[in-house]
Amino acid sequence: MTFEAFVEVRRHPGIADPEGATIERALPTLGFTGVSGVSVGKAFRLTVEAEDLEAARTTVAALAERILANPVLEEVRVSLSEVAPA
Amino acid sequence: MTKVGVVLFPGSNCEQDVLEAVRRLGAEGELLWHGDATVDGVDAVVVPGGFAHGDYLRPGAIARFSPVMDAVTRFAAEGGPVVGICNGFQVLTEAGLLPGALSKNRGLTFRCEMTSLRVDSRKSALTEAVDEGTILRVPINHFEGNYQCDPATLATLRDEDRIVLRYVDNPNGSVDDIAGICSADGNVVGLMPHPERASHPLLGSEDGNRLLTSLLGAAARLAVSSPLG
After folding, report:
1. What is the count of structural domains for chain A?
2. What residue in B sits closest to A73 (Cα-Cα)?
């Protein structure tokens, strides 16, 4: 089975995020008020061949923890969806 | 003669400077290719600065999986001195040889300037020959030098005297003004400032030589006491 994975890597809550803070400070000068909690992360799209959804999730979670994210600073969120055969 | 191996990744750019600096101090220097899983019988390893693998993903994130890093990890486990400078520090944290991580500088600015460092521990191979409290002038050149770790790790580093260098005037937001730390045994050291760029009067400072001399001393002592393969 083929799955499309979407991996979001973002800062642990509480870890300083200077990029997010800088963007947040810029927003009012552009007229956008009432916006807070801006954080900057990375997103990855992968296509995975696996037996089933759980196997695909295990693989993607493992590779995300191993290389896509630095667990000291970042946390990972994985979403998966099956790709329908053509 | 004490032999220093300097790791060369695609994108390293301080390796020749480190070789020049250690040779001027009387050591032998050789490059260690990232694709070779050996440290070739050297007495000390330096992981130099630069942009290994283009810093893609994160600084050090790809370099840590290089074959040479397996050999460096074994060498470190046997007690061999390993120093990561700047990008090399980032590689060592990504490889898990040192705790914590280097995050983007506070203020989101690339900092390239002379800094004053205080030697706060002689526990490491890089500082064992320098008195605590000594102020050294050594330049930095980085965007991601903001050392971060969780509070428990910071407490451990403090309790075990493993914060070896602190900035006198913190340039990047590092916790506790940390410029350099070492492993529990002191043989693995990481620092953001570049000692090799403070190794000659023409560079504006020779203070980096005091750190490199310390490293060479530690390497020579360890080589005599337990020859490393």
Report:
1. 1
2. B101
